[in-house]
Amino acid sequence: MSDVVAEARAFLAEHWSPSVDPDEWRERVIDAHWAALRWPSQWYGRDLADEQAKEVEAVFAEAGAPGPGQDMYNLWAGTMIAFGSDELKRLFVRRLLLDDVAMCLLYSEPGAGSDLAGIRTTAVRDGDEWVVSGQKVWTSGARDADFGMLIARTDWDQPKHRGITFFWFPMRQPGVEVRPLRQATGDARFNEVFITDARVPATHMVGELNKGWWVLQTALAYERIAMGGARRSAPTVAARAPKGATAAAHGDIPSPDISLVKLAQTMGRNTDPAVRQELARLHCLRMVNGLNGDRAKAAADTGTSSPLASLGKLAMANILHYAGRVQGHLLGMEGTLDGDRFPRSRDANYSQLNAYFFSIGGGTDQIQRNIIGERILGLPKEPEVDREVPFREVTVGRM
Ligand SMILES: Cc1cc2nc3c(=O)[nH]c(=O)nc-3n(C[C@H](O)[C@H](O)[C@H](O)COP(=O)(O)OP(=O)(O)OC[C@H]3O[C@@H](n4cnc5c(N)ncnc54)[C@H](O)[C@@H]3O)c2cc1C
Asked: Which of 31, 119, 305, 391 has the greatest CB tally within 10 Å of its CB?
């Protein structure tokens, strides 16, 4: 047994019990550097290689103790670790690990979603600050957010990917107006964000000036890995859960192959061979995607923005659509009802509609297919006529 595994066992023996307060436990795990094993020891990690980290994670899992794995799923802290200055890290890493700071992603704009390099929100330097103006849209969790990870154009004379800078943007200030958008599910979890001469300290730049595109790739990879595993730190998902709550407790992430087995039993359908086949198929899809998720995480650990994350995200979207269909199928005619008086069919309707979020948020299914086609299958790249043109001269997408 390696020293670190022995240390983990000793830590759990001394401190872990299923009845421990979850917030206290989270803090203890973070401060003892078990929450993000692959990160530098200076920033709450232990500098472990992937293999060793997995051994330690297995020890925690065996004991039923949550906590490790934030180095794989915490996109906010992960982006900060990869690109933030030491000053920003000191201010935010621990708080982000503790889930003590509410965040949102300020990427998409009315004219730039799939083609994020087409953003027009602009930041202009003014002394020790940047002044930001523009409009963002579909921003999950913006109403409650303390900060947003913002991409803004800082040089209009460079080609579209090269004049973008990444900022840690304070949301609670004059000049930031958040308007909720109603979704098909009835929720209003995402928003329009209107930014007018809002300010961000120059020290809140993440990465280098005009090199925000590369920071964004890391942040997107984290998001896709999280969504591929349907983990809580995916912003689409996190925005649904009150702070400190587990996602599952709020039904954020359906785990249909478990709850659907129960539903099949309740409906007296669990001996139907066709139903059993569907449930087994769903279970297998999830297992295979879990294995792909491990590969994607390992690749991310070696510093690549892996197309495996796209594969996992696309697969998870398919799994959730399929699970929604199975849920409706199990209910039969009852599935045509809706509303609080019919909770089973209300949940099935919700699952079916919610699956579309995974097909769109974090980059659409089509975009993931493009990435898989180009980077895994080696197909030719899509032609991009505006790639090398100064952004000022690009007319496509102009509002
Ligand atoms: C639940 C949810 C949460 C979200 N949260 C956030 C958030 O917090 N922050 C944020 O910034 N954004 C967020 N988004 C926005 C999301 O990232 C965008 O909606 C998404 O990237 C698509 O952009 P778009 O809506 O502008 O569609 P468009 O880019 O206009 O695409 C329209 C259609 O064209 C297809 N298409 C576009 N380009 C290509 C291409 N090159 N090849 C093939 N097909 C293509 C797309 O797949 C899509 O079907 C969220 C969206 C959802 C649904």
From this structure: 119
Other beta carbons within 10 angstroms of residue 39's beta carbon come to 24
Please state, as a whole number, how many other Cβ atoms lie within 10 Å of the Cβ of residue 11. Answer: 19
For residue 359, the CA-to-ligand 1 centroid distance in Å is: 9
pTM recorded for the entire structure: 0.89
| Single-letter code of the amino acid located at 52 | Q
Q: Kindly give the distance from the C-alpha atom of residue 169 to the centroid of ligand 1, in angstroms, as a whole number.
A: 22
Separation CA 241–CA 190 (nearest Å):
13
Q: Which of 52, 41, 51, 99 is nearest to 75 (CA)?
A: 99
Q: For 49-104, how does the pLDDT look when each residue is reduced to its tens digit (9 = 90+)?
A: 988 999 999 999 999 999 999 998 899 999 999 999 999 999 999 999 999 999 99
Q: Residue 107: CB within 6 Å of ligand 1?
A: yes
What is the Å distance from ligand 1's center to 361 Cα?
6
Using an 8 Å Cβ cutoff, are 121 and 212 in contact? no
Ligand 1 midpoint to CA 106 (Å): 13
Residue holding tokens 């996992």? 312
The C-alpha angle 244, 179, 161, rounded to 5 degrees, equals 85
368 lines ligand 1 (CB under 6 A): no
Choose one of 103, 114, 164 to mutate for the ligand 1 pocket test, by most ligand atoms within 8 angstroms of C-beta.
114
Which residues fall within 8 angstroms of residue 73, CB to CB, at 6 or more apart?
A: 222, 225, 226, 229, 231, 232, 233
